[in-house]
TrEMBL record:
SMART domains: Molybdop_Fe4S4. SUPFAM superfamilies: ADC-like (SSF50692), Formate dehydrogenase/DMSO reductase, domains 1-3 (SSF53706). Residues 6-61 form the 4Fe-4S Mo/W bis-MGD-type domain. PANTHER family: PERIPLASMIC NITRATE REDUCTASE, RESPIRATORY NITRATE REDUCTASE. The keyword Oxidoreductase does not apply. GO terms for cellular component: membrane; nitrate reductase complex. It comes from the Bacteria. GO terms for biological process: cellular respiration. The keyword Protease does not apply. One of its GO terms (molecular function) is nitrate reductase activity. Pfam families: Molybdop_Fe4S4 (PF04879), Molybdopterin (PF00384), Molydop_binding (PF01568). Keywords: 4Fe-4S, Iron, Iron-sulfur, Metal-binding. This is Nitrate reductase.
Length: 714
C-alpha cells in the first residue's frame, strides 16, 4: 500500500485481448492501485495479471538510453547517432538491394497509431510489403477464416453475446486461465440459466475443461474430423436451419460453388463411427455435442490458439463458422462465432490497420490491384507506390534474414528470439541481419541479438488506442513520463520516417493527429469508424465499430439490422460478399505433417499459464506472478510417466527433429496419454527451440500446438 490515491484514471489492461477496462490510482505520478472498471465490458473483473499493473509500471531493468553494438557489446550512444545509423543502414540496403531487403516486424501490443505509421511508411513510402509481426503467430488463421466466410475480417458478435447464450462451444481455448473475466461472465450466465451447457474440446483437461458439462479430449491435430462429423450429424438428423441455408449461404469446395447435395456427400466420410477412433472419443459424444450445438436457443463458439496455431487453422476457422451458418446459430443475441485474441491490440492494431505482409488497411489485400489503388489514393502517393508482391510472413521473414535476402529489420514491442518456432534457426537468422530492436526492457532474448537497441516507452508512458477482440476501440491516456531517454514507438517511427525522407508521407506528429487521419480514412471502407473521435474515446468506455458518425453508438453485432451497412428492410445481410451470402466451405481433414513415428512417438503441445503472459518479459519480472508459475517443466500423464520410468521432478529429455530440451517431470492426470505439455513464457526454458515451424498454407500461422517428439529419462 503506497498511501492514499491522489487521482483515479480510466485505462485498459496492458496484456491480453480481453481488453479489460481498469481504473488506475495515481499518487505522486506513480500508479499505486488498480481495480477493474465496473463500467467496462469486463464488469469490474480483472485477472491476476491485470491486478499487478502497478508493479509493471515500476519495474527495474528498463532500457533508458539507445545503444549500438560495438565490438560485441551494446554501448550507450545518443538518439541522434542511433537514428542516423539506422536510417543510413536502411537507405544503403534499399539503394543496393531494393526495398524488399528491409523489413518491419511489429506486434499486437503496439498502439494502433504506431502500427498504422509503420505500415504506411514501409508499404506506401519505402515500397515493400515486408511488414509482419507476432499476430501472424496467434490469430492469422482466424482473420483468414472470417474473411473467407464473411468477406470481411473481425467477428460478427461480441462479448455481450455471453449473456444470452445457452450453449458454449469452446475449442482449443483455456478461458479459465487465459481470459478469466470472460470465463467469469460465462459462469454468471450459467448460474442464472442452469440449463446452459459448456462443451470443451481440448487435448488437455485444462481448468476450463474441468468445469465443463462435456469434455471432448480429442487427440492433437484431429479436431477438423470432429467439426465435420458434427456437421454430418446435424445434416443427417435434419437439425440444420433450412430457411437460413436457403436465404443466406453459398457452398464452396475451395475451387467453385457447389450445391447442398455435394456438401452432404462430402460429409459422408465424417460419419461419427468413421472418425471417432482417430479422435479418441466415442461416436455418441459427437452426436450429443452436435445436438446441443444445433438445437440450443443460442450457441456461442469461442476459440483461441488450439484452433489457430495449426496447419489446418484456416480450415478449422472456416468450419467453425460453417457450423454456425448451417444451424442458423448466428446473427441473434448469444448465437455467434467469436475468436478470442491473445494480445491487447492484435485486432485493432494489426488486423484493422492491415499491418501484415499480405494485407492493407480495413480488409484490403496487397494482391488486389483495386485495393492498392484505393490505398494509394487515400495515402496520396503516386500510382504504383505499393508493391503488388506480398511481403514475407513471420516464418519466412526470419528465413529470409538467414538467407540474407532481408538485410535490415526494425523489431518493435515483441520478442521473436523467444517466440518463433524452430527457434535456433530463427536466432541464427537474426544474427545475420542488421537488427534494430525497440523495447522497454534491456534483457529480452531479442535485444541480446540486436545491433541497435532503442529504449521504448511503456504503455501509460505514451498515448494511443487499443482495439480488442470484439471490434472495441479504447484509448489509453499518458499518465507518466518514460524513464531516462526512452521514447514512444510512435515518436521513433515518425523520426525514422523523416530521416528516410518520408516526412511528406508521415505529416502528423502526435498520436491524436494520426488517429484523425486514420479514422477519416476508415470511412472509405466497411470498417467505417469515422464516428470514433478522440474526444469520444476520452469520455466513453470503448466503442465498437462500425461507427460511421459521431452520434452513432457503435455496433455490437454485425450483419443484422442495427449494423449501419445492412440495408433497411433486410434482417440479415452478409455484405462482405458481393451477393450478400456467407460461404460454407467443404474443408477436408488433412493430417498434420508432424506425424508420430517410432522415432517420435509423443506429441508436444505448448501454451500459457495463468500467471504469465507471452514470453514473460513483463510478467516474469513481477514476483507475485513469477513465483507460482512453475518453470522448466514437462507435464505428462501418469501412464506415460510409467512407460518412460520417470517420477515427479526427474529430468526428462524431449527431442524433436529440431533439437532437444531437458526439463523436470510433472505428472498430471489432466494430460492426455501420449501428449506432453510445456509453457513458453520462460526464457530459461526456450521450448520453441524444439517446436515445429510448419504452418497453415494460407494464413502462414505456425503449428505450435503439434510437434512430434521423443522423450526419455535424462
Ligand atoms: Fe488483463 Fe487479460 Fe487479465 Fe483482463 S483478462 S485483466 S485484459 S490479462
Amino acid at each position: 500500500d503506497e498511501g492514499p490515491v491522489e487521482s483515479w484514471h480510466k485505462s485498459v489492461c496492458r496484456y491480453c485481448g480481453t481488453g479489460c477496462g481498469v481504473k488506475l490510482g495515481l499518487t505522486k505520478g506513480k500508479v499505486v492501485r488498480v481495480k477493474g472498471d465496473t463500467a467496462a465490458h469486463n464488469k469490474g473483473v480483472i485477472c491476476i495479471k491485470g491486478s499487478t499493473l502497478a508493479d509493471l509500471t515500476q519495474l527495474e531493468g528498463r532500457l533508458t538510453v539507445p545503444k549500438i553494438r560495438t565490438e560485441g557489446r551494446l554501448v550507450e550512444t545518443t538518439w541522434e547517432a542511433a537514428m542516423d545509423l539506422i536510417a543510413s543502414k536502411f537507405k544503403e540496403n534499399i539503394e543496393l538491394y531494393g526495398p524488399d531487403s528491409v523489413a518491419f516486424y511489429g506486434s499486437g501490443q503496439l498502439y494502433i497509431e504506431e502500427s498504422y505509421t509503420a505500415n504506411k511508411l514501409f508499404k506506401a513510402g519505402i515500397g515493400t510489403n515486408n511488414v509482419d509481426g507476432n499476430p501472424r503467430l496467434c490469430m492469422a488463421s482466424a482473420a483468414v477464416g472470417y474473411t473467407q466466410t464473411f468477406g470481411k475480417d473481425e467477428p460478427p458478435g461480441a462479448y455481450a453475446d455471453i449473456d444470452h447464450a445457452d450453449c458454449f462451444f469452446l475449442m482449443g481455448a483455456n478461458m479459465y486461465e487465459c481470459h478469466p473475466p470472460l470465463w467469469e461472465r460465462m459462469m454468471i450466465r450459467k448460474k442464472s440459466h442452469p440449463q446452459t451447457k459448456i462443451i470443451v474440446v481440448d487435448p488437455r483437461k485444462t481448468k476450463t475443461a474441468e468445469h465443463s458439462d462435456i469434455f471432448l479430449p480429442v487427440y492433437p491435430g484431429t479436431d477438423l474430423l470432429l467439426l465435420n462429423a458434427m456437421a454430418y450429424v446435424i445434416v443427417k438428423e435434419g437439425w440444420y436451419n433450412k430457411t437460413f441455408v436457403k436465404e443466406h449461404i453459398n457452398f464452396h469446395n475451395g475451387q467453385r460453388e457447389v450445391d447442398f447435395a455435394t456438401y452432404i456427400r462430402f460429409l459422408e466420410d465424417y460419419a461419427p463411427e468413421k472418425v471417432a477412433r482417430k479422435l479418441g472419443i466415442p461416436p455418441r459424444q459427437i452426436e450429443e455435442v452436435a445436438h446441443w450445438f444445433a438445437t440450443s436457443q443460442a450457441t456461442m463458439s469461442m476459440w483461441t490458439m488450439g484452433v489457430n496455431q495449426r496447419t489446418q487453422g484456416v480450415f478449422l476457422n472456416n468450419t467453425l463458422n460453417s457450423l454456425h451458418l448451417i444451424t442458423g446459430q448466428i446473427c441473434r443475441p448469444g448465437a455467434t462465432p467469436l475468436s478470442l485474441t491473445g494480445q491487447s491490440n492484435a485486432c485493432g492494431g494489426v488486423r484493422d490497420t492491415g499491418s501484415l505482409s499480405h494485407i492493407l488497411p480495413h480488409g484490403r489485400m496487397v494482391a488486389n490491384a483495386h485495393h492498392r489503388q484505393e490505398m494509394e489514393q487515400l495515402w496520396g502517393v503516386p500510382a504504383g507506390s505499393i508493391s503488388p508482391k506480398p511481403g514475407y510472413d513471420a516464418v519466412n521473414l526470419f528465413k529470409a534474414m538467414g538467407e540474407e535476402k532481408v538485410k535490415a529489420a526494425l523489431v518493435m514491442c515483441t520478442n521473436p528470439a523467444q517466440s518463433m518456432p524452430n527457434l535456433a534457426e530463427a536466432k541464427k537468422a537474426m544474427e545475420k541481419c542488421f537488427l534494430v530492436v525497440a523495447d522497454v526492457f534491456e534483457d529480452t532474448e531479442t535485444t541480446k541479438l540486436a545491433d541497435v537497441v532503442l529504449p521504448a516507452a511503456l504503455y501509460l508512458e505514451k498515448e494511443g488506442v487499443y482495439g480488442q477482440s470484439e471490434r472495441r476501440y479504447q484509448l489509453i491516456e499518458k499518465l507518466m513520463d518514460p524513464p531516462g531517454q526512452a521514447r514512444s514507438d510512435f515518436d521513433i517511427l515518425v523520426d525514422f520516417a523523416k530521416r528516410l525522407g518520408y516526412g511528406n508521407l508521415i505529416q502528423y506528429s502526435t498520436p491524436a493527429e494520426c488517429w484523425e487521419e486514420y479514422r477519416n480514412l476508415s470511412a472509405a471502407s466497411k470498417y467505417n469508424f469515422k464516428g470514433i473521435t478522440r474526444e469520444r474515446l476520452q469520455k466513453e468506455r470503448g466503442i465498437q465499430w462500425p461507427c460511421p458518425d459521431e452520434n452513432h453508438p457503435g455496433t455490437v453485432r454485425r450483419y443484422i439490422q442495427g449494423d449501419p451497412f445492412v440495408q433497411e428492410g433486410r434482417e440479415i445481410q452478409f455484405y462482405g460478399k458481393p451477393d450478400h451470402r456467407a460461404v460454407v466451405f467443404l474443408r477436408p481433414y488433412i493430417p498434420t505433417q508432424q506425424q508420430l513415428s517410432e522415432e517420435f512417438p509423443y506429441y508436444l503441445t505448448t501454451g500459457r499459464v495463468v500467471e504469465q503472459w507471452h514470453t514473460g518479459t513483463m510478467t516474469d519480472k513481477i514476483p507475485a506472478l513469477s513465483e507460482g508459475s512453475g518453470r522448466g517443466v514437462f507435464v505428462l500423464h501418469p501412464s506415460d510417466a510409467k512407460k518412460l520410468q520417470v517420477a515427479e521432478e526427474d529430468l526428462l529429455e524431449v527431442s524433436s527433429q529440431y533439437g532437444s530440451m531437458k526439463g523436470k517431470v510433472k505428472i498430471s492426470e489432466n494430460e492426455t496419454p501420449g501428449v506432453i505439455f510445456a509453457a513458453f513464457f520462460d526464457n530459461k526454458f526456450l521450448i520453441n527451440l524444439i517446436v515445429a515451424d510448419n504452418y497453415d498454407p494460407v494464413s502462414k500461422e505456425p503449428e505450435y500446438k503439434v510437434t512430434a517428439v521423443s522423450a526419455k529419462k535424462y
